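Notes to self after the Tuesday call (sharing in case useful).
The group wants a holo model before anyone commits to mutagenesis around the pocket. I volunteered. Ligand is Broken Fe4S4 cluster. Logging inputs and output together so the record is complete.
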Amino acid sequence: MAELKKVEEKKAVEKDAKLADPVAASMDLGTQELIARAQKLNIDTVFDRAVQMKPCNIGIQGICCKNCAMGPCRVPLPKGGIQGEDTRKGLCGASANTIAARNFIRMIAGGAAAHSDHGRNVAEVFMSAARKQTDAYRIKDVNKLLSIAPHFDVATTVEVNGEVQDRNVDEIALEVAEKALNEWGKAEGELYYLKRAPAPLYEKWTKTGVKPRNIDREIVEVMHRTHMGVDQDYKNLIKQGTRCSLADGWGGSMIATDLQDVLFGTPYPLQAESNMGIMKEDHVNIIVHGHEPVLSEMIVAVSQKPEIIEYAKSKGAKGIQLGGICCTANEIFQRHGVPQAGTYLQQELAIITGACDAMVVDVQCVFQNLANVAKCFHTKLITTHPIAKMEQDNVIHVEFDEHYALEDAERIIRMAIDNFQNRGSEVMIPPYKSVAIGGFGVESIQYHLGGTFRGSYYTLNDNIINGRIRGVAGVVGCNNARTRHNEAHITVVKELIKNDVLVLTTGCNGIACAMEGLLTPESAAVYCGPGLAEVCETVGIPPVLHLGSCVDNSRILLAATEVVKAGGLGKDLCDLPVAGSAPEWMSEKAISIGQYFVASGVYTVFGLHLPTAGAPVFHDYLSKELEKLYGGRWDLEADPVKHAQLMIAHIDKKRKELGIDKARERVLMDMADRQALEG
Ligand code: SF4
Ligand code: MSK
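Result:
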């Protein structure tokens, strides 16, 4: 009886539970349709949970401490704000600044750990490939290997009898693998890649004492310093946060990007499609979701084998359709043109289509609720990583081992194919999808904007100096169910390109832009200001360049460094007319990225909120004082148009400081004159 009562009560609660308004939840039609379908089927998604559970008002401001069992201690701002001295403190006396700074740098450590552990896994696979312990992985891009070797102090030539000869590639690979893996735990020195930064920036890091010693150590030290009763000075805490974030951006993430390029190929522009409409009713649909391309590369390779396609046909399917979610999507999109099924917030919806025969996940940004949704359909949910399992009993774990990579990938794909026949009759794939060009990077920007022979950033710099391109923005990051899916991403990006700001995108912003059709050269004529439109038309590039996944934010740092090297725009990253943005951030990785952007000299604006609002002194330190140390600073603006305008104002300020503001006025005057003539 008691059980029955409980069930009745649960049903009553569920009946009363508020549901998301699909149109208010997402700007994407397909997403709206799938949210409505989920609600009709009585399956909850993140969109419904977001209206049912509000965030904690104290946690959101960064002023709840649970670093010891005397707490949690919450130190809310008094009504009317702080008047006079701020006397708030936890049981141990920790001030609001200390609490917020500790929380903030723990987020940096979480983000840096995620990116860097991804990098470590790639480095380990790279080591296996260099030692020839696996047939599945090999050095695919020798040029990239040769280009990164000198940064690890690995020679690419050797002198034999007074003659300089090319070194054996296998030897180089092995040495790079050893040096790269050592970056996580070396006992002395500093990270090799720091010297890739412009010299004045490297000097700033030296002077302020924030050069990372090794990647793991900086993460560990954040955890030590934020333990109860250790570092209690917000400035000293964020100094370590900075060092940890640099170990991510100029360490773990950058190594991940480079070694992935060596193993799987440096991306060059290619065309694909984006959004849930890429799934096909008559195909076996396999959705890969997560971050590390080590597995997804194998899934791509095996899914193209003739015998596997034949096997799919023998089960009644016309073929195999792969699609990606989150950064796995970005990885296989940029290297193979595999379509993107959607962003972070669309992961449950891929299963709600009823057409997902298998969802294969690895690490980061994977909802545990996928398992509950999968229970309602035939979908096989397959976890693959030893560090990322799920408790629900319908989840299948196929532990991926790089030594048996192809076999593991084949096992997973055959499981999906076998599952095709178990589909229910009701499949609903929203028909919407867009064409998208991806695969840009430091190398391809050089080629596209510099020409085959010049192979440089001069043309990009010329166009910035003459004002056709007003500046460059890195717009990156997640979705967040606390705001309308994709709307801030798209509004910020459209406002920027309308004002002649070239956008470099990664992560879920990249997928959002792809879904909106902004990753095509044709979109320039529709959305861009006249200067940027002219450049895009002349060189045939989209106004939004997709640079890959979250770890590939390192490509943005290196592209900016190339701009400095090409000359005419200052000597340091902070001199450039550039800005960073994460309009819909949610992940700890975003905080780490934000901090390393700031510490690299980039003015960086976040949307929504920052978990620092409850500690105004610490917040001011991030948004005002850090600029004096590194040339970059944090800012916050939830309104996407104002958000973009802040970035544009910063770009204009930098143009003025460089003395190139007048050039832009002339360009605009030329355009206006031309339009007047045409009129
Ligand atoms: Fe409270 Fe201090 Fe313990 Fe944090 S460390 S929970 S502020 S007593
Ligand atoms: S996947 S970290 S939601 S960008 Fe890299 Fe998207 Fe953010 Fe995950």
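Two things stood out.
Residues 96-130 form the longest helix (35 residues).
Residues 129 and 137 are 6 Å apart (CA to CA).
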